[in-house]
Write a structure and sequence with these properties.
By secondary structure, the protein is mostly beta strands. Helix content is 7%, strand content 52%. A 4-stranded antiparallel β-sheet has the order 1-8-3-6, with no helix packed on it. A hairpin with a 6-residue loop joins strand 4 and strand 5. It is elongated.
């Protein structure tokens, strides 16, 4: 029994925090608040949050992206946009209105070229009054490479 306890204890410390599975690797992480948009009137507001890295996804066939978003407005949109030399901008993922308030976890094909990624937040309060406060925020962004 003592031998099995020693084996169990020694096997617990072998985890690599950057490798989430046999074929997934954490490539980028931005914990906490990534970006937010706040509106206190009846006007549209867009935030363009470029990730602080230039990505080279060679060797990965897909990407898995995770983040949480929440909005207090009835009209909002959140998108992940890719920029590279061949395409000015390409929307990789987008959700509108009631689909914004959730934990997003999705897979996309990995871009072949050097890529810049942007998280775009759009807020357009349809119904608003005096001193009305509306927001949209994104938190805890992670990008995994899948071989």
């Amino acid at each position: 029994m003592l031998v099995s306890m020693v084996f169990l204890y020694s096997s617990c410390g072998d985890e690599n925090p950057f490798n989430t599975g046999s074929n997934e690797t954490l490539l980028y992480e931005e914990p906490g608040l990534v970006d937010s948009v706040v509106v206190t009137g009846c006007y549209d507001q867009t935030s363009y949050h470029f990730l602080n890295d230039t990505f080279h996804f060679n060797g990965y066939s897909k990407l898995r992206v995770e983040f949480e978003s929440l909005s207090s407005s009835d009209r909002s949109r959140i998108s992940l946009v890719s920029y590279n030399a061949a395409v000015t901008n390409q929307i990789l993922y987008t959700k509108n209105n009631e689909e914004v308030n959730m934990l997003h976890s999705f897979e996309i094909s990995a871009p072949a070229d050097t890529t810049w990624l942007e998280l775009r937040l759009f807020l357009s309060p349809r119904v608003c009054g005096e001193n009305d406060y509306r927001y949209l925020r994104a938190r805890d962004l992670k990008i995994y490479g899948i071989k």
